[in-house]
Amino acid sequence: MEHQVFVPVPEAPLRAALADPERVAGAVPGLQRDAAPGAGAPPVAGRLKVRVGGHTITYRGAVRVSARDDGSYALDGEGTEVRGSGAVSFSLRVALAPAAEGGTDLVFTGTASGDGRVADVAGDSPQAVDAAVRRLLGRFAEGLAAHADAADTVVSVFDTEVPPPSLDPEADDVPGDVPGGAPAAEAAHARRTMIGRSAEEVDHAPPRGRYAPVPAPEALASGATLRWAAPVAALALASAIVVTRALRRRR
Fold first, then answer.
1. Which secondary structure element, helix H or strand E, spans residue 88, and what is its range?
2. Residue 77 belongs to domain spanning
3. pLDDT (tens digit, 9 = 90+) per residue, 41-61?
4. Same domain, 11 and 102
5. pLDDT of residue 22
6. Quick one: pLDDT at residue 65?
7. Are 52 and 129 in contact (CB under 8 A)?
8. Do 43 and 25 meet the contact criterion of CB atoms below 8 Å apart?
9. Structural domain contains residue 107
């Protein structure tokens, strides 16, 4: 058997995906992985439903992926029917070739064998088995490309832009903190002093500078009245004393 699938993903991410059993398992369409595989079990193992013609067959099995010396990859696997006594096995070779469209061609070649229900379907309609295998390989290639592309586009925190100096809390000249040109140590001390004040202190601290409250006009008027009232009262008292003494002398 030979089957070729084009995927719009470069060759390097695909090779990285094929070298990662987790991404290989995620690329197998419909695979239900074993929750806790036993010691020494292949990482890509579980249950897989395969639709062949009008039949759906569920297999439990495993797949092993290994790199070959010629740059291709070997996929070897086997499975047994969950409801039945049939079994299947396959040995595939996957070669990657750069395509002119900027993607990659995945070329599958190999052999497969099986008995049980799939053999019964093949006896009645061999083209149905061939179509099911090609459909499964095509969906696997698409899933592998999706996992390779997703891993390739993850942005690292080390690739993010560094904030400009105006947003740096340790900048020497930050508007609203201290006058420009102040030493870095004084600026940091001023920031720590402002940040260290509690919310209650900030809420109840009286404003200073040009934002300080202006005294009410009534307070100024009353102060001026008191300053003038004292001399007038003293003068009136002195006048009263003089008049009183003059009257006594006349008597």
1. strand 87-98
2. 2-152
3. 567 899 999 999 889 999 999
4. yes
5. 87
6. 92
7. yes
8. yes
9. yes
